[in-house]
Design brief:
- By secondary structure, the protein is an alpha+beta fold.
- Helix content is about 50%, strand content about 15%.
- The chain is built from five helices and seven strands.
- The strands form two sheets. Strands 2-4-5-7-6 form a five-stranded mixed sheet, with helices on one face. Strands 1-3 form a two-stranded antiparallel ribbon.
- Helix 4 packs antiparallel against helix 5.
- The radius of gyration is 23 Å and the shape is globular.
């Protein structure tokens, strides 16, 4: 896959054919690398919880033999199993979204109401961390889409903002119309994302923390990207100086 067909830069039919074949080889090589990377990350992410689950079940077996069942140990084992199931469920959900069959369920959505519902869901968490939330929502912005999927995508972005914004920090959500397009912005004053990693965060299992010790499976932003693609929206990550600014643009009704 590293070899390419040489061209003569004449622009004739043979050069066009060679360019097309070389582009195809580039894409195949990229996809093969993605498969390898995802496989490595799956093995890494699932090996640890599986090992913990096995060890706890082994402890339960010994404890049950000696002195009866240990409810706390059973609960920990169930929690580990739930973590594994959540990872696989997220992968399956992304795959279903990417199949684009969900476009049949599209309906007109009042975006201000949807964003307000997400904000209300996260209010208790933000209060617990002493974070402030500012809303600037234009009420007449509507779009055609799947409400459940859009809710999940915005909730994922909101969850990241709450998670990485320090205690006492602030988060702002704006919904507006600009140049005939709808625009949703979620901005925080956390550590942000380095420019070199802003495209990579949409890859499955990619995590900025290389040690991978923080809870999570690296699929949240992948789901966001799948929902954005399904709804023919665009998304970009910008520097909020400090923090991260997520900008989503879409075609309003």
């Amino acid at each position: 896959l590293n070899r390419r067909i040489p061209t003569r830069n004449t622009g004739d039919d043979f050069d066009v054919l060679a360019d097309n074949l070389n582009a195809m080889l580039d894409r195949i090589g990229s996809l093969m690398e993605d498969v390898r990377r995802v496989s490595d990350n799956i093995a890494h992410d699932l090996r640890t919880p599986l090992a913990r689950l096995r060890n706890r079940l082994e402890e339960l077996h010994l404890q049950t033999t000696v002195s009866g069942a240990n409810p706390e140990g059973i609960e920990q084992a169930v929690t580990e199993a739930d973590g594994l199931l959540n990872t696989f469920n997220a992968l399956l959900r992304i795959a279903r979204i990417e199949s684009q069959h969900r476009r049949e369920a599209f309906a007109e959505i009042a975006m201000a109401e949807l964003v307000g519902d997400v904000a209300e869901l996260y209010e208790p968490l933000l209060e617990e961390k002493h974070q402030t939330l500012e809303l600037g929502l234009r009420e007449d912005v509507r779009m055609a889409g799947d409400r459940d999927l859009l809710f999940q995508a915005i909730a994922n972005l909101m969850d990241n903002a709450a998670k990485y914004t320090p205690a006492g920090g602030s988060i702002r959500i704006e919904l507006a119309r600009l140049d005939g397009k709808g625009q949703l912005v979620i901005a925080d004053n956390g550590p942000g994302i380095p420019e070199a990693a802003r495209e990579k965060v949409f890859q499955r299992f990619f995590r900025l923390e290389q040690s991978r010790t923080t809870p999570g499976n690296g699929l949240g932003m992948s789901l966001v990207a799948a929902v954005v693609t399904l709804h023919r929206m665009s998304i970009r990550l910008e520097d909020n100086q400090p923090g991260l600014r997520v900008v989503i643009e879409f075609s309003p009704c």
